Amino acid sequence: MGGAKGLDFKLQKLEAEAKLTLKDINFESNSAQLSDVSYTELNRVVKLLNENPTLRVEVSAHTDDVGSDVYNLVLSKKRAQSVADYLLQNKIAPSRYTNQGYGEKLPKVPNSSDENKAINRRVELKIISI
Asked: Does 61 map to a domain?
């Protein structure tokens, strides 16, 4: 979904229930602190929301299976909250988004290699309504 450098919102058709994986939202290991490279992608999300004032989204964060289920669930919730905090700091009304951490419950691929684990450590936007 999207271009090689993160989301290409112009090419992505926005439909309710669509999920957009945010490719460049990164966190330090065992941390909910956004990395510096994350802000370019987050600014694109802010722009998308500003250009589509009725759009509502769910910010969902996911982890790989390293660590306990409980730890990963808490970590993913903190990561989703970090993204939500950034949206709020950029004047996106909290009524326009929810945030949810899913831990390791919804992997995109099996956690069978370091590459796959990296794929599963992700943040997605789910379109709630347009």
From this structure: yes
CB 16 within 8 A of CB 57: no
Number of domains in the chain: 1
Please identify every stretch of the chain with a pLDDT value under 70, giving residue numbers as ranges. 1-14
CATH of the domain at 62: 3.30.1330.60
Report if residue 60 sits inside a domain: yes
CA angle, 72 then 78 then 83, to 5° = 125
CB 54 within 8 A of CB 124: no
pTM, whole model, 2 decimals?
0.84
Write down the pLDDT at residue 13.
Answer: 64
User: Amino acid letter at 19?
Assistant: K
